[in-house]
């Protein structure tokens, strides 16, 4: 919400010289977040001038300019820039005449841009200033020639300060209005809050309106204009309209100009001037917070009926769009059909035009939920809908209609008719019991009884004594005050947040991060410390990409599909983190970062086949039962946390004496080892396959089903738990992301790692006996996984084998074609004695025997 300072000053006392920054600071004290400052960015001598004469001079470029003599000061006086009272000015516009009064920017002034004005030679003349257009002054959008003040309805003296005359010396503060404080979407509401903050006197415009005449605020009329609220099928038990006020003004001149001060204020609040009647309704909406609408009375057919639309019913709105309606939409209709989408936009058939002479003014109070849903359904947010969504004061509608009627009299020459209507079925706010001491106990500051009562009175609440404390009836403009807790917050806000003591809670001893939090942090910190960069990507993907990355084998997998996606081409929740990482890597590569190593931890969405999710949603503000809570949890698809990474480009950059070394599958496996070390969980690798990974360069990451003394290069074969994959991606996949052919990647289910990390580890005894080491080279068929051979050696060697690692793989001379030599480093140890070499050899031979029986392994000669 933007609030011009001059407008604010009409309803609250501002100290002379108050700056926008000071107003912002005062509003921050009462809980409003500052957004921005707005002004017309004009300065310097900008005055009213009178065109004395001009000569048209065609130019070689086909343009005709006017060499003008313009009076900018009275005879015998200096101009505001210190020059002569008559200035010569070159102007390219042709919409003015001799005798017209215009806005002249003299040398030394500055226009938005910034665009400084100075005397300069152009088209063979020295132009001593510039005659300004509405766009150049910030009053309009198009460039329709220079401003002729007569067209704005003013006739000032030559030399008058144009900034003050047109309201261009004003400024506006912009604040963020939270959804629960809709009353602050008005000058009335913000002025009240400024008064709360500073103690300045506040004048409620609902009680006092600075108009030139005395427009009666009518609550009954000589002739009742027929209005019917026919919401026979309220949605969710809520009637669409609770109040509807109308009034007739006849004989208006719709062609009259909007006064400059109103145009300037509307521009500052972010609304362009359209026409006098429309500008007046917009002006009063920003002033009082009550949306209004004007109908051309002569185009109405019969009375007004407020009703729900029928499914598929059509309406042409003011933007000339034909809109298909839903049964939830609320309509304003007459005998001809729909004439307005209630609370959002009027219809084209009753639009105010220059030919309008008789106006029906409407101010209503509509259901916030109905308006919010319709605005979103039709993608048609408006200033009116923003206010109705947050709640509008039901008592201000009558005042707003009277205010518009008076302005139509003052500015458009109309006459107020005795016809109108005033339907008001709004329910008065209920009293809230506020026990003595409750506010102090909740906030943590000892408030006096006077501070509590005066704060609540100040916001407009009505207070009476009750046996337990106070009975508080909130004002009509505060629908957000619903219980004693919201009242306590108001007391804290009005008295001052700065008085609330800051006390840091003491953490109970023995508590800290959970195991899951510790593991997640260690994994992320380890990856970051070893050269990876953490990113955060969006969780939205298309179905094809999800199928490719989401499962190792299946061509199609269950997915979570969004009902209303932000992007229709990415309407599914991700089943893998890798696509987001690849897209980020491609974006960085396109900007010159050819070598990157990225990782991400985040949730993926893995629904079970045949299960429907998202059902069982409950109404708010009601605590669910345990059964309902269980149903809600069941309605959410499994969302495990993954950790994934991609590596592209060079692991080792080129340098003197060193060629670049590119990332490959070994670097992806190294990242897996880092995760294993960080989590304290032993991970093993074995040959695997995945649709997105390169055949033959894909490792399956597993956790052994039983603990043993095997290093990360082997484990028991059998019921191992697969937790992820690592290796190189298929080149066809990387090319789709505009990446090099070789991209290393890994993906691990971090939740499974955390589950194993949470299992208590039993410490091993410290061994005091010396170890015996031997190497073992076995020749096997190349298709036999080295991991399986190692597992057989370990199983056969028995308890004396303490550690075994694969240290070399050889294929070449000395080894039969189609076979390879696997060399293992073995370490033997006994708990109670020093092993002899013979004992170690017997244990090793037992392992060789089992490997031979299973895989035909033979000792390499």
UniProtKB/TrEMBL annotation:
Listed SMART domains: B3_4, B5, FDX-ACB
GO cellular component: phenylalanine-tRNA ligase complex
Reaction(s) the record says it catalyses: tRNA(Phe) + L-phenylalanine + ATP = L-phenylalanyl-tRNA(Phe) + AMP + diphosphate + H(+)
Domain FDX-ACB: start-end pairs: 767-860
Pfam families: B3_4 (PF03483), B5 (PF03484), FDX-ACB (PF03147), tRNA_synthFbeta (PF17759)
Cofactors required: Mg(2+)
E.C. number(s) listed in UniProt: 6.1.1.20
Domain TRNA-binding residues, every copy: 40-163
Localization terms from the record: Cytoplasm
Keyword Cell cycle attached: no
A GO biological process held by the record: phenylalanyl-tRNA aminoacylation
Highest taxon of the lineage: Bacteria
SUPFAM superfamilies tied to this protein: Anticodon-binding domain of PheRS, Class II aaRS and biotin synthetases, Nucleic acid-binding proteins, PheT/TilS domain, Putative DNA-binding domain
Protein residues bound to Mg(2+): 480, 489-490
Matching PANTHER family: PHENYLALANINE--TRNA LIGASE BETA SUBUNIT (PTHR10947:SF0), PHENYLALANYL-TRNA SYNTHETASE BETA CHAIN AND LEUCINE-RICH REPEAT-CONTAINING PROTEIN 47 (PTHR10947)
Subunit structure as annotated in this protein's UniProt entry: Tetramer of two alpha and two beta subunits.
Protein name in the entry: Phenylalanine--tRNA ligase beta subunit
Species annotation: Alpinimonas psychrophila
């Amino acid at each position: 919400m933007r609030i011009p300072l001059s407008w604010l000053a009409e309803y609250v006392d501002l100290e002379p010289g108050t700056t926008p920054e000071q107003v912002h600071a005062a509003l921050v004290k009462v809980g409003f977040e500052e957004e921005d400052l707005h002004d017309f960015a004009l300065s310097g001598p900008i005055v009213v001038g009178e065109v004395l004469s001009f000569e048209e001079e065609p130019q070689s470029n086909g343009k005709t300019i006017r060499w003008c003599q313009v009076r900018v000061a009275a005879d015998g006086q200096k101009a505001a820039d210190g020059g002569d009272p008559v200035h010569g000015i070159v102007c390219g516009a042709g919409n003015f005449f001799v005798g017209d009064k215009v806005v002249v920017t003299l040398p030394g002034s500055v226009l938005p841009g910034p665009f400084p004005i100075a005397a300069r030679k152009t088209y063979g003349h020295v132009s001593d200033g510039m005659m300004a257009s509405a766009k150049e002054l910030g009053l309009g959008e198009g460039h329709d020639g220079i401003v002729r003040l007569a067209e704005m309805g003013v006739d000032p003296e030559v030399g008058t300060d144009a900034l003050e005359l047109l309201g261009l010396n004003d400024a506006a503060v912009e604040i963020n209005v939270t959804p629960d404080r809709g009353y602050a979407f008005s000058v009335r509401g913000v002025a009240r809050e400024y008064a709360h903050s500073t103690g300045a006197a506040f004048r409620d415009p609902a009680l006092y309106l600075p108009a030139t005449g005395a427009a009666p605020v009518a609550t009954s009329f000589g002739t009742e204009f027929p209005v019917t609220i026919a919401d026979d099928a309220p949605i969710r038990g809520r009637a669409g309209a609770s109040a509807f006020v109308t009034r007739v003004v006849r004989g208006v001149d719709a062609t009259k100009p909007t006064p400059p001060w109103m145009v300037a204020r509307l521009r500052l609040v972010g609304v362009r001037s359209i026409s006098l009647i429309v500008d007046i309704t917009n002006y009063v909406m920003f002033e009082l917070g009550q949306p209004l609408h004007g109908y051309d009375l002569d185009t109405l057919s019969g009375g007004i009926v407020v009703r729900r639309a029928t499914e598929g019913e059509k309406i042409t709105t003011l933007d000339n769009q034909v809109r298909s309606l839903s049964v939830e939409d609320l309509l304003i209709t007459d005998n001809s059909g729909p004439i307005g989408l209630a609370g959002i936009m009027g219809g084209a058939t009753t639009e105010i035009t220059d030919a309008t002479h008789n106006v029906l003014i409407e101010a209503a109070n509509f259901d916030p939920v109905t308006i919010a849903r319709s605005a979103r359904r039709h993608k048609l947010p408006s200033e009116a809908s923003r206010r109705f969504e947050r709640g509008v004061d039901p008592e201000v509608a009558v005042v707003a209609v009277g205010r518009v009627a008076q302005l139509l009299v003052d500015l458009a020459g109309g006459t107020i008719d005795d016809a109108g209507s005033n339907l008001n079925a709004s329910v008065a706010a209920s009293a809230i019991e506020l026990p003595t001491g409750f506010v102090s106990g909740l906030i943590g500051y000892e408030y006096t009884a006077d501070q509590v009562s005066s704060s609540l009175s100040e916001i407009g609440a009505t207070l009476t004594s009750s046996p337990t404390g106070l009975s508080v009836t909130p004002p009509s403009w505060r629908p957000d005050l619903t219980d004693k807790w919201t009242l306590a917050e108001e007391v804290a806000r009005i008295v001052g947040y700065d008085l609330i003591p800051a006390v840091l809670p003491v953490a109970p001893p023995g508590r800290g991060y959970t195991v899951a939090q510790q593991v997640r942090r260690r994994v992320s910190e380890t990856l970051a410390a070893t050269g990876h960069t953490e990113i955060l990507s969006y969780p939205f993907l298309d179905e094809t990409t999800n199928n490719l990355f989401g499962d190792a084998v299946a061509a199609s997998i269950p997915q979570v599909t969004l009902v209303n996606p932000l992007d229709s081409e990415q309407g599914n929740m991700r089943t893998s983190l890798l696509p987001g990482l690849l897209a980020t890597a491609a974006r960085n590569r396109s900007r010159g970062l050819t070598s990157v190593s990225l990782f991400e931890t985040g949730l993926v969405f893995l629904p079970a086949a045949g299960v429907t999710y998202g059902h069982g949603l409950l109404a708010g503000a009601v605590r669910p039962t345990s059964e309902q809570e269980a149903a809600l949890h069941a309605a959410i698809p499994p969302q495990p946390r993954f950790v994934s990474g991609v590596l592209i480009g060079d692991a080792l950059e080129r340098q003197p004496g060193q060629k670049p070394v590119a990332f490959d599958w070994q670097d992806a496996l190294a990242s897996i080892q880092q995760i294993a070390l960080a989590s304290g969980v032993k991970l093993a690798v074995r040959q695997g396959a995945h649709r997105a990974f390169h055949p033959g360069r894909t490792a399956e990451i597993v956790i052994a089903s039983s603990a043993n003394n095997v290093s990360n290069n082997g484990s028991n074969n059998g019921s191992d738990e697969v937790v992820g994959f690592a290796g190189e991606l298929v080149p066809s996949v990387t090319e789709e992301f505009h990446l090099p052919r070789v991209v290393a990647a890994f993906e691990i289910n971090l939740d499974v790692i955390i589950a194993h990390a949470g299992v208590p580890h039993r410490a091993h005894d410290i061994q005091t006996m010396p170890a015996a080491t031997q190497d073992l080279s076995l020749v096997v068929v190349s298709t036999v996984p080295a991991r399986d051979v190692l597992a057989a050696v370990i199983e056969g060697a028995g308890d004396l084998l303490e550690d075994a690692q694969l240290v070399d793989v050889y294929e070449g001379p000395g080894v039969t074609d189609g076979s390879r030599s696997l060399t293992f480093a073995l370490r033997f140890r006994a708990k109670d004695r020093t092993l002899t070499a013979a004992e170690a050899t017997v244990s090793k031979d037992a392992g060789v025997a089992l490997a031979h029986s299973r895989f035909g392994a033979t000792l390499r000669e």
